[in-house]
């Protein structure tokens, strides 16, 4: 499974992408890739693009992947079962609401994420015991291999 977590600060711009790299990334997500999602991410996605009729909005991608069995959905139970060690949690600098996103990346198959949030990226990239990777732009991650 070629999975990747896409933070809402990236996904909200899928409706009308101008950047060629994002067009390639969206095409890959639509035809090959697998989104790592949680209930919290779905709520965030819906709040930012629910009114969009664009065929490239993230909810359309989720729908297609779900129909094709490519969606990597992590349940609330999956996230609750992943416990941060107190010393590891103290090292985190991202928002508390992003903790479930960090868990989702660490529980995913490939442990890749795309986000504009530098604190989230730093927390994912430096989380002890995991070889996870988060970047600001999709072309900085080997998502298609």
Descriptive report:
With 145 residues, the protein is of the alpha/beta class. It is built from 8 helices and 5 strands, in the order βααβααβαααβαβ. The chain has helices at residues 8-11, 20-31, 39-49, 58-68, 76-81, 86-91, 99-107, 118-125; strands at residues 3-6, 34-37, 72-73, 112-114, 133-135. Helix 8 (118-125) links the parallel strand 4 and strand 5 (133-135). The protein is globular and about 45 Å long. The model has no long low-confidence stretch (mean pLDDT 93).
What are the SSEs and their pairings?
Layout: E1 3-6, H1 8-11, H2 20-31, E2 34-37, H3 39-49, H4 58-68, E3 72-73, H5 76-81, H6 86-91, H7 99-107, E4 112-114, H8 118-125, E5 133-135
Parallel strand pairs: 1-2, 1-4, 2-3, 4-5
